[in-house]
Please model this.
Amino acid sequence: MHRNRGLVYVALILAMVCWAFSFIWVKVAYVVYAPLTVTLFRLIIAFIFTFLYAQIGNKLMKIRREDYRIFFLLAFFEPFLYFLGESFGLKYISSTMGAIIVSTIPLFSPIASSRFHGETLSRRNLIGIVLSFLGVGIVVFDSSFNLIASPLGIALEFLAVVSAIGYMTVLKGLTKKYNTPTIITYQNFIAIFYFLPCWLFFESRDFMNTPFDAPAFIAVIKLGLFASSIAFILYTYSIKNIGINNANMFINLIPVLTAIFAWFILDDPLTLRKFVGIFVVISGLFIAQVNLKGLTAKLVSIQQDGGR
Model:
C-alpha cells in the first residue's frame, strides 16, 4: 500500500514538472515559431501519442451521437480557447508570471461548480480566492500600483483561466460516460480542426518561409509529448488513487518549479517580489483545498496508532 502511494506521489511530481517545464518550452519555441504554429503542432503530436496509447490499451471508446456537441464545446474551451490565452499571453509576460496566474485555476472552479452543479462555495474557497488575487497583484503591480507587466499578457492568461473553468464544468458530465484516454484523444483531435483554419490564414506562410530550427522544434515535441500527453496520463492515474482534492494540492508546485526552471534556463530574475507573490498565491490555494479539521483528525489518528 505504501509503495503504491509512493508511486502516486512520484507520478504527481513528474506531472507537475512537465507542466512547469511547459512554460519554459513555450518560450524556447517562440524564439523561432509563432504561437498558432507551436500550438497546432503540439496538438498533432499529443493526439498521435494519446490515440496510440488508447488503442494499445484498448481504452478508446466510441462517442455517442448525442454527445458530439458536448465534445465540440469541451474542445472549444480547452485546448482551443485555453491555448489561445496561454500561448499568446506568454508572448507578453514571463514564464513565471504566466504560471502564477494559471495556477489559480483550482481556486475558481468551485465557483463554476456552485453555479452549474449545485456545489457549496465554502468560506475557505472565498478566502483562498482573495489571497491568490492578492498574490497575483503583488507580482503584476509595483509599489505605486502601476502594472509592471503587459496588461494584454495578463488578460490573455486570465482568459486561459476562465477557459479552463469552462472546460472543467463541461468535463464533469463527460467523465461519467467516458474514460480519460477517450476524452483527451477526442478533445485534441477536434481542437486541431479549430486551430487549422487560423493557422492557415495567419501563420502558414511565415512557417513555410522559416528555416528549420532543431531546439525550437524539439521544444514543440516536448510540449506535445510531455505536457499535453504524459502529464495528463500521470495526473489521471494519481486522481484515481488519491482523489482530485489531494492531487490538486500538487498544482501548487507549478509556479515554484517554473520560477526555478526559468531562472536556470531563461535567466529570468528571481526577485523578492516574485517569491512573496508565489507564497501568497500558494497560501490561498492551500487554504482553499485543505480541510484543516480533516487534516487534524488524520494527524490525531496517526498519533494514536503510533502510541499503540
